[in-house]
# Entry
Amino acid sequence: TPPEIIRNFCVIAHIDHGKSTLADRMLQATGVVEQRDMRAQYLDRMDIERERGITIKSQAVRMPWEVDGTAYALNMIDTPGHVDFTYEVSRSLAACEGALLLVDAAQGIEAQTLANLYLAMENDLAIIPVLNKIDLPAAQPEKYAEELANLVGGDPADVLLVSGKTGVGVEALLDRIVAEIPAPVGVADAPARAMIFDSVYDSYRGVVTYVRVVDGALTPRQRIQMMSTRASHELLEIGVISPEPTPTRGLGIGEVGYLITGVKDVRQSKVGDTVTDLAKPATTSLGGYEDPKPMVFSGLYPLDGSDYPVLRDALDKLKLNDAALVYEPETSAALGFGFRCGFLGLLHLEITRDRLEREFNLDLISTAPNVVYDVTLEDGKEVQVTNPSEFPTGGKVAQVCEPMVAATILAPSDFVGAIMELCQARRGQLQGMDYLSEDRVELRYRLPLAEIVFDFFDQLKSRTRGYASLDWKADGDEAADLVKVDILLQGEQVDAFSAITHRDKAYAYGVMMTAKLRQLIPRQQFEVPIQAAIGSRIIARENIRAIRKDVLAKCYGGDITRKRKLLEKQKEGKKRMKMVGRVEVPQEAFIAALSSD
Ligand code: GTP
# Structure
């Protein structure tokens, strides 16, 4: 396909602004998907994506569209909308020349609209502003067209009005894509260079890699090389998605498609890497790629200890399709054998846990999520702590650094006070504030990641009656006065409950956790103190009073078989108990204490 008739674009939008629905309508309008084959959110292939209504993995589809007698090939690259997957968004954007900036006509611009727009601008993309859902009775197209025009420059009259639901405006939108998005340019006789913007493991075909060719061409049977690792593979198949994978005789400049080499692990075909020709390799790769960096860690333990090998196999399988997932075995005195897993964010954690439970039939306990701490010891040694119970104690710690984020919050101006209060309580530093219009404000904060991973978004939503939106990105590390709080049962540390908190919040954590455990742990034959401690200093304490329960007393004078039955029943019950020192703790107590409320 000659580059002049190719248009590569993506759709960027805040979550739920209707990106997938609009993509469905474009597939129909261009005849790529017949009416009868249409199913909602065609591009979201994974079951879990369809159920949750979110896009996790980006996909690319090729659509024919004719303008003035010329047949164009439009490549639409779908991008994930959630902040955890920002790196994938930025790679998808780098594969395009233009972007549709899609905004819900009843909601206006939101935090992710801005974040994605800035990414698109960094990639020099042509931007077509589009208001979606204009069929909604609550739509305010005039108001938001103006807001959009202010943001991207241009006339409010140039903002397209569409509805992914009714299909209104979709053909005009396709025409605009052809007219306004530049054709790709590249060097035909240069060594081949193609950028990987997605890579998906398929149990039948191995890894399917999505690429955008920049220079030269890729053809079947060619030997290719991954520029970051120098690993080489034979191209077994190459083709385009329209809407199912269709093999072709090759991909040239500006073309978007997939390739299959038979590798079995997405780590061998990394998002952001450059594919070149082994025989005639390019000298420079296309922009750097980043190894995905886990930001949030949690311990995953099977409820039933004998499921440990199943969990290990399940993680190995998920890893084939998720380069960002990291894990290593760990043992907890309280929870047994499990894995410490690293995730891009909380959503990534939730999705992974969900898939493990659902696809591999596992019941799991996950420990409270935590971030990574860089600890410098008095002797100058540095350690990375991903598990709070391994945090060095005593006078050995010189400095602790925690990861920070740059957060953008958009909300109606009435809520500025409530938002500032929340951010201050979370140790946030205000960086700036702008009014997008007279009643909408953008607040920029620098916050510790640890303060937002847990319930920040929920709190933000409830304090702004659902109107605020949030986006954030990693923003370096910063030293802070952090301490480890341990929880002790009868003097024995319970590793799963150790937490790293700011010194000012340690007391509150200790009081909360000891009170919670007092509720959850049944009384024993002896008194059980529950303590929270920083090092050897106790900061909170509760007591579980002793009971004297003599089960055999009930059987006084009774026959021996009844006694035995009773004793056996007791033993049964003990199986689901974990021993912490001499204290029997039902597993449910651990689960309940670890679940957030
Ligand atoms: P993510 O993939 O999670 O980013 O969401 P999305 O932006 O793809 O949104 P999606 O297409 O899933 O639509 C979100 C919700 O809005 C769904 O309930 C849709 O039915 C609804 N919706 C989408 N487009 C329209 C529209 O044009 N009009 C109306 N009334 N509803 C729409």
The first strand starts at residue 6 and ends at 13. The first helix runs from residue 19 to 29. The CA atoms of residues 357 and 363 lie 6 Å apart.
